[in-house]
Amino acid sequence: MLDATAALRPLVQVRDLKMYFPIYSGLLRRHTGDVKAVDGVSFDILPGETLGLVGESGCGKSTVGRALLRLYEITGGTVVVNGTDIASLDSEALRRARPQMQMVFQDPQASLNPRMSLADIIGEPLREHTDWDASRKLARVYELMDAVGLNRRFANRFPHEFSGGQRQRIGIARALALNPRFIVCDEPIAALDVSIQAQVVNLLEDLQDQFGLTYLFISHDLSMVRHIADRVAVMYLGRIAELSPRDALYARPLHPYAEALLSAVPEPDPTLARARQRIVLQGDVPSPANPPKGCNFCTRCPKVFDLCREVKPELAEVEPGRFVACHLFANTSVAGSTGASDATEQTQQGVPR
């Protein structure tokens, strides 16, 4: 169990994270611009908490997750995981830090080596980061298979012999092998049948309770994020538009983009569905290589005004625990707030699991 002081301290602290991909053009392949996939993202995640990261395709969600684990070389900003600045580590120090942070990938078939058996796949992190003997490694593999609901008799089978849901369970077991504290779940249910998605999400919740895990849960499925997340960050074109506690966001989204996004979530109650107004955004998402001046949502926002087209709004706390990057709330910001709250402010955003 974490003591009170440790519980208040964020496990993950991201400040002004930037991830630019260079554009080269011309005969001499000169650097003529950048694709700003992530453009100044800041947030904290408390121990045992699940932060949902949502947004439409191409907004930079998966890039944020990969940058947090240094699968990409970060362009700018800091990423502190359990007190260590991941962005500044050399290759050997980064390798030593890997066990505390792992990832569950979107496509379970593509992320598993088809030439390796289940036992080899789950045991690979143990071979890389421990000096255990074969019997101890096998015992750990069996323990992980039990934890994710895989029969031990399957240990010598290969990925093509499993269903999509079973393959994702293999990926989850591999991520758990080194007892990490922080796991990035990059759309872990997107490639699965609807009937299997709830089983995988329930498994992730059970494992979080059992092992005290902290999740960044990336998804475009807003209904599933509502089920699993404690807080939700809404991304648009490389920036966070709104960061709020889950219940507050779904009950009353503040940012116009979050409002439009949530209006598209299916409502099972026919009475509520008829009463709800669907917000349809006009136009296309601008290119991250050439984002608009001012607010990056100004070209599609139904509430846009002149200031939006000139000045980029900063993510600011407008209500206790609620952060919005929108000029509509410029006069309601909580005094002294910043784009990412400190640990004391975050305790107001929902008790972590």
Could you explain how this protein is built, in words?
It is a single chain. The protein is built from 12 helices and 12 strands. The strands form 2 sheets. The chain has an 8-stranded mixed sheet, sandwiched between helices. A 4-stranded antiparallel sheet has the order 2-1-4-5. With 353 residues, it is of the alpha/beta class. The chain is globular. It is 31% helix and 22% strand.
Produce the secondary structure layout:
Blueprint (H helix, E strand, L loop, with lengths): L3 H5 L3 E14 L4 E16 L4 E5 L6 H8 L7 E6 L2 E2 L5 H7 L3 E4 L13 H12 L4 H15 L15 H13 L5 E5 L7 H18 L2 E5 L3 H7 L2 E6 L2 E7 H6 L4 H8 L6 H6 L40 E4 L2 E3 L18 H4 L7
Parallel strand pairs: 3-8, 3-9, 6-7, 7-8
Antiparallel strand pairs: 1-2, 1-4, 4-5, 9-10, 10-12, 11-12
Helix pairs in contact: 4-5, 4-6, 5-6, 6-7
